[in-house]
Amino acid sequence: MLPAAEIGKAPAAPCCPESGNERKDIEEKNDINIAALFGNEQVSEDTDNGDLTSYVSAFIEKEVGNDLKSLKKLDKLIEQMTENKMQLEEQVLTISSEIPKRIQSALKNAEESKQFLNQFLEQETHLFSSINSHLLTAQPWMEDLGAMINQIEEIERHLAYLKWISQIEELSDNIQQYLMTNNVPEAASTLVSMVELDIKLQESSCAHLLAFTRATVKFWHKILKDKLTSDFEEVLAQLHWPFITPPQSQTVGLSRPAGAPEIYSNLETLFCQLLKLQTSDELLTEPKQLPEKYCLPASPSVILPIQIMLTPLQKRFRYHFRGNRQTNVISKPEWYLAQVLMWIGNHTQFLDEKIQPILDKVGPSVNARLEFSRGLMMLVLEKLAADIPCLLYDDNLFCHLVDEVLLFERELHSLYGYPSTFANCMHILSEDTCFQRWLTVERKFALQKMDSMLSSEAAWISQYKDITDVDEMKVPDCAETFMTLLLVITDRYKNLPTASRKLQFLELQKDLVDDFRIRLTQVMKEETRASLGFRYCAILNAVNYISTVLADWADNVFFLQLQQAALEVFAENNTLSKLQLGQLASMESSVFDDMINLLERLKHDMLTRQVDHVFREVKDAAKLYKKERWLSLPSQSEQAVMSLSSSACPLLLTVRDRLLQLEEQLCFSLFTVFWQVLVEKLDVYIYQEIVLANHFNEGGAAQLQFDMTRNLFPLFSRYCKRPENYFKHVKEACIVLNLNIGSALLLKDVLQSASGQPPATEALNEVGIYKLAQQDVEILLNLRTNWPNTGK
Fold first, then answer.
1. The pLDDT value given to residue 27
2. Among candidates 198, 344, 391, 212, which has minimal Cα distance to 279?
3. Using CA atoms, how far apart are residues 43 and 46, in angstroms rounded to an integer?
4. What is the pLDDT of residue 10?
5. Half-sphere exposure of 70 (CA within 13 A, CB side)
6. How many alpha carbons lie under 13 Å from residue 792 in its C-beta half-sphere?
7. pTM value?
8. From what superkingdom does this record's organism come (predicted)?
9. Distance between CA 179 and CA 182 in Å, rounded?
10. How far apart are CA 425 and CA 402, in angstroms?
11. Angle at which helices 668-685 and 534-553 cross, to 10°
């Protein structure tokens, strides 16, 4: 503790000056003490920044400050700093003594590691020389051993070869023994084992072994197949197979002849045994394939028992529909197509009731009726592939063939459930040459049909004009016939096997729509002078109907699938922008959008022309009404009964007559657009040309309101509940002109004092003004002449 007398005095200077080094040591010690007090990180950071003095000052200011009593803490602070200083010095000494020891230890370890490495290198050199010496010594042994191993491997291959031959010969002997004892089922099962061996050997390079195995399989397969086929045909003959007559007239087959249980038992046994030969039959028999240009889907061969059942029908087909037979007429494809359908129908019940249960017992998921249909379909495809090149350039014959084929396909799919994924006639029609010819003929006949439908006397008359409920669209006969034509084309190509072919037909449809639109436009231009005439309205109805139907088709699943296919094609060919691709992908647009947009544009132009025509007539009829002396008409109190202005009669009669005429000739949706556009133009015209162009006394304003609300507006009441809402300008102008004097003065004052402010809007809304702006209302108020004389 310092004596009280020394409190507040500065410390005394040292008696003798210190040398520079001593001063430096003292400063470093002071730094250490301060670092101990402030914390090592902060002081070192502060010292680096050269701000040590300021931190010391701040520290003393904090601990002592201006309070003299705080000097009592100095002893404690000095003791604390001295203690921290001693701890730091000890740490420095400890670290200074440990570092050399660690360095020495690291050097020692490094030296030892070097010695170990040298030893390892010496050992490696010794081992390398020893190994080389051993390899040289063992080289003759290795050569001898390699030769022995090669001999052993060759012997093993020979043994394996002999084992395969032994297995095959053993199976062959077993088949022979089973056949000698008439055990055909076991013989067939053994042949299946032999076929499995043949399949396993397919990857082998032993050509002779493969040939031996295949020859053995072929030998026994032929013997078994011939025997089973002969027995199977005998059983079928007992059932009077095939059934040439319809099921209703069949006396056998589905009926129960004598010995029926035994016959059906034999049928099942032989059918199952023939199924066992299926694998070997596929292995040995090359299936008949049409040329690759027809792109038939890959499918397994028809199962062997069904092939045998089809044999007599195939013979009949080739006998009647090939060569010079009278039944083989190229212009009558319906003969052989109908014959195939009849055969399928005649045998369907037997196949479902007698053959399908056998297949279900055996296990494989095979449909007997579809297998039978597949076999007959191959006859049809072969016949079509042979006939089409002969009639390709005869439009009538080719078109007739396509019609009959499409009818055949429809019945085959709908009546007998033949899947579209199997090979069918559409694959033949999709062959490039045939398909392009089909497109050409389809376009040719469609254009001919369009010519005839537009030149018909009833082209512009609706078929249902006398049936109100049906004739909402007022569709002319030509438009309905055209859309029916497009629908028929869609039904004709919708079962094509590939999306690319369907897209080509879709382009044909779009071309036809565009061609029909152009024809309608040409006829419309001829009728432009009579834009309210019957034919002009019929054309407009036709355009509207086609656009509406195409918009509905755009949401059809079939066309949505085509849209997805088109998206993939466009993406591959980069024929559309990213925006267009995005719109197609998100279903914002459709495959018919281009056509719909053109039709909508034509519809808009035609409607606009009609509205303009009627509006010109209305303006001509309103000339007298515009010249009415609104300024000098008698007030309502001076008249016994309000009556319509005589000058308004031509105007109202024109509006009424045209509305009735177009309501009768246009469909509902078009007429709705027409009268709403007309009302909009009429509202603005009356407001600008009659109201704003005149001044009104009390009687004139009342007469205008009477003419509008009691005569003009009601003309549209049959088309909407509140027609006055479509005449907003005129209605609100009448309100302003017919306000009583007090309300009008008050409104005028409010508008002048609160220009553009909410109070002005509220005042307008209170009197029923929502459409007109404040400036418009002020103009209307100034058009009134019945203001009181205020002396201003």
1. 43
2. 198
3. 5
4. 35
5. 9
6. 3
7. 0.74
8. Eukaryota
9. 5
10. 10
11. 120
